[in-house]
Structure formats: structure tokens, C-alpha cells
Design goal:
The chain has about 450 residues and is mainly β. About 10% of the residues lie in helices and about 35% in strands.
Length: about 450
């Protein structure tokens, strides 16, 4: 994780706020609509890098050493994203009249370019019309070619505008998309028991034009699915006592007909003879409250080719441990896999099965966030919250003790390019994601 993001010099803000107390500020330039502001950068055009203004739905922005990118290599939600090169800047030419509580920005590498760094800066509107910018938080490092969300808590009460500054220089380019600001004083909704309450690790979207990061948001769990791998990138779900009941294991493995038309649907027989289990991400035993809920865990979009001992011993032990934490606790769980090539019961290394249509992962990981039962879950996570992260090889000859494979969330993020727990305040992420759990294992 980047270092904690906090608002800069408190003195500077107090000085600016004093101008508001002395006189009524003039509204300079354009004014954004009342309420939340979200800019997707999907309209407007600027094909060349020299500085120029572009009018988007939110208002006019100045793009310096930047273009509106529409190329296949531009990583974007929708048709366009801003692409910065060298020390490019993206600057609001208008003030948001209702201040800013939180800001989120989607960011990714352009194409296969090297990593970039960037910063968010803010300028409050003052009676003196001072051209003073203050950095919001710390530098953000973009290392993934998948759009990730950077979240900032600003709490700026007066009219304000923002600027994004690429700070790394060099030839590597940076995509910026989906800039969103929540007004100061807005009451943020409490998201509890949602499978994505702690964040969408890859910015997955239910848009078929993103076939390898396609969101399946089911009542029982949420999936980022990869059509080309034939497996999930990750599955995220919430677990509490209400998810557990007396319903038996349905064992109705089947293809997922909710996938977009024309996509290959992995079949219940696709793993036959491969030497790999149909390994659940969200386990059957986490969904025993109703037949429908248990049945949903047997969709093949919830499966990976998993070495039998990995699935039936090491992972089963961890899954059972997670359920022992109920009913006093609730648990947010994210599981995924990455890499290519595992070793199942047939021996040797296998890279694909099902005539090349399903990729066998090299590693399997999981993160558990454990909370006492309560409300406003994301806000209750602190530096002291227990978080278990493990990362195992997808092989048959591994330890049955899941505690032997404990690691940090940061390490999993570095290996996968995901942004886990992105809904947490960044100062909390910075602490909890660096830790390696040393708590009990049974």
C-alpha cells in the first residue's frame, strides 16, 4: 500500500478558512452541480499532448502533457480515460461549491508501461484569489495495468478544486479515470454485510468488453471472472451465523448460464481426469442456510483447478477454522489465485485442462478480516483488527497446516496487482496490510 494519505498543512487550511469568515468569497469560473461530482472522462477529445482545455460533463479541465486516451492500451472504464506522460497534470478549471469529504480516483498503467507515481493536490477558493495548492496525502504508486481505486479523505468544507500531478517523469504513461468527490458533510452510507463492503479488488465491472475482469455479483458472493482463464481472479463474500444452517451439500456442479452470450461455459465435467479438484472459492459449508444458497457455490465460475491435498486438507482446515469464529464474529473473506502451472494427483506440472480452456493456477491465496458482530463494518476496522492472509502453492505435497503459509496482504497485492481492502481508510490499510498474522490456527 502507499503510505497513509492525509490532508496536508493544517495551518494552510486554517489561514484559507479565515478568509471565508472575513468576507463572502466570489465564485470563480464554473461551478459544479450541487451534490456529489463524478467525472468519467468519456466525452470530449484531446489527441495531442501540448496543454489544452477539455470540457467534460463536470466542467472544464486543463490537460497538460496529457491526452484523452481512446486506444486499446488505455486502461479505462467505458470509452476513454485521461493519459498522462512525463510530468503531466490534470487540473479542474472550476470549483466544487460544496467542498469535499472523500475523493476516489481510478488509476492504471498505460499498456505495459513501467510503474508511475502521482499526487492529488487541492486549492480552496479564497477571497484573496490565492493560487495556493496543498498536497492531499502522500504520493500514490501505480504498479498495475488493471484499474485500481485510490481513496482520499480530505474533509474540506469550502469551495475547492483539485489537480492530479504525475510525479515520476520519464517515458512511462499513466491512465486516470472515474474521478469522484463526495461533498463535505455528506453522510456516507453504511455498507454492511455486502460482499464488496471492503472494496472491489480489481475494479471489476459487469461489462462484457472487460472479459478478464468481469463482475458476477451474486446474492451469495461476488466474482471477478476471467473468460480466458476459465476461472475467477477472486471471489469475495461475507460470512456470519445467518449463512449457516442445516442444509446439506447439494453437489450440483454446473456451468454458469449467467455469463455473457458467446462465452465458453466451463462444464461440470471439465476437470474430469485432470488430477485436480473442482476447488470452491466460496465454500459450500459457508452457505448452508438454504438450498439455493448452497447450490450457488457449485457454479463452475466459483471453481479453480486445485490440487486435491491443497483443497481437501490445507484449505479445508482454514475454512473450518473461519467458521469456528462464528457466531460472535463476522468475517469478510476474499480468495483468489494467480500464475500458471500446478501439480495435482497425476504428478508433474499442468498448465491448462479442458483442452486448454481452463488455466491451472500456480498459487492460491485468501484473506480473512475478522470483526465482532456489529454495524458500519468498514469503519470498525482498525490497526488492531485481526486479518489472516495466506498464499499457498497449488501442489499436492504441501503442509496441512495453513498457518505455515501466512503472509501479508501487501505481499498478495504485490504478486497479483490487486488492491485489497480498498474501502478502508488508507492509514488503516497501511498498517493492517503490512502485518503477518500470528494468532491461533485452531
Amino acid at each position: 500500500m502507499p503510505t497513509p494519505l492525509r490532508l496536508g498543512s493544517r495551518t494552510a487550511w486554517l489561514l484559507c478558512l479565515s478568509y471565508f469568515a472575513l468576507s463572502v468569497p466570489r465564485v470563480l469560473g464554473q461551478t459544479a452541480p450541487t451534490g456529489a461530482t463524478q467525472e468519467t472522462f468519456d466525452t470530449g477529445a484531446k489527441p495531442a499532448y501540448p496543454a489544452g482545455e477539455v470540457t467534460f460533463p463536470s466542467g472544464t479541465w486543463l490537460l497538460t502533457d496529457a491526452v484523452v486516451g481512446t486506444a486499446e492500451a488505455d486502461h479505462k472504464n467505458g470509452a476513454q480515460a485521461v493519459r498522462l506522460q512525463q510530468t503531466g497534470r490534470l487540473t479542474m478549471q472550476f470549483f466544487l461549491p460544496n467542498g469535499a469529504a472523500t475523493i476516489t480516483v481510478q488509476h492504471a498503467l498505460y499498456g505495459t508501461d513501467a510503474s508511475s507515481s502521482w499526487e492529488l493536490w487541492a486549492q480552496p477558493q479564497t477571497a484573496c484569489n490565492c493560487d495556493k495548492w496543498t498536497k492531499v496525502g502522500s504520493t500514490v504508486f501505480t504498479t498495475s495495468s488493471t484499474l485500481q481505486a485510490a481513496a482520499f479523505t480530505a474533509n474540506i468544507p469550502g469551495a475547492v478544486k483539485f489537480e492530479i500531478r504525475k510525479t515520476s517523469g520519464g517515458a512511462a504513461r499513466l491512465n486516470i479515470d472515474d474521478f469522484a468527490v463526495t461533498p463535505f458533510g455528506a453522510t456516507l452510507p453504511s455498507v454492511d454485510n455486502s460482499h464488496l463492503a471492503l472494496g472491489n479488488p480489481s475494479g471489476a465491472t459487469a461489462d462484457p468488453s472487460y472479459p478478464n475482469n468481469y463482475l458476477l455479483d451474486k446474492p451469495q458472493y461476488a466474482v471477478s471472472y476471467s473468460r480466458d482463464r476459465g476461472t475467477p481472479n477472486w471471489v469475495s463474500w461475507h460470512l456470519d451465523a445467518s449463512d449457516r444452517g442445516s442444509v446439506g451439500r447439494q453437489d450440483n456442479f454446473r456451468n454458469d448460464t449467467s455469463l455473457p452470450d458467446g462465452w465458453y461455459q466451463v462444464q461440470s465435467s471439465s476437470y474430469t481426469g485432470s488430477g485436480f479438484d473442482r476447488g470452491h472459492n466460496c465454500p459450500s459449508a459457508d452457505r448452508t442456510s438454504t438450498r439455493e444458497n448452497n447450490s450457488a457455490t457449485f457454479l463452475m465460475t466459483n471453481m479453480i483447478p486445485q490440487a486435491p491435498n491443497n483443497n481437501q486438507k490445507t484449505w479445508a482446515n482454514l475454512e473450518n477454522y473461519g467458521r469456528t469464529l462464528l457466531p460472535d464474529n463476522e468475517v469478510y473473506i476474499i480468495m483468489g489465485s494467480y500464475g500458471v502451472g500446478g501439480s495435482g494427483s497425476n504428478g508433474g506440472t499442468t498448465t491448462t485442462i479442458d483442452q486448454g480452456r481452463v488455466t491451472v493456477p500456480n498459487r492460491v491465496w485468501k484473506v480473512l478480516v475478522i470483526l465482532p458482530v456489529g454495524d458500519n463494518d468498514a469503519a470498525r476496522i482498525t490497526a488492531g483488527t485481526r486479518i489472516i492472509a495466506i498464499d499457498t502453492p497449488n501442489i499436492n505435497s504441501l503442509s496441512e497446516q495453513w498457518g505455515d503459509y501466512r503472509t501479508s496482504v501487501d505481499a498478495i497485492e504485490a504478486a497479483t496487482g490487486l488492491d485489497l481492502l480498498s474501502a478502508l481508510p488508507l492509514e488503516v490499510q497501511a498498517v493492517v496490510e503490512a502485518k503477518v498474522d500470528n494468532g491461533p490456527t485452531n
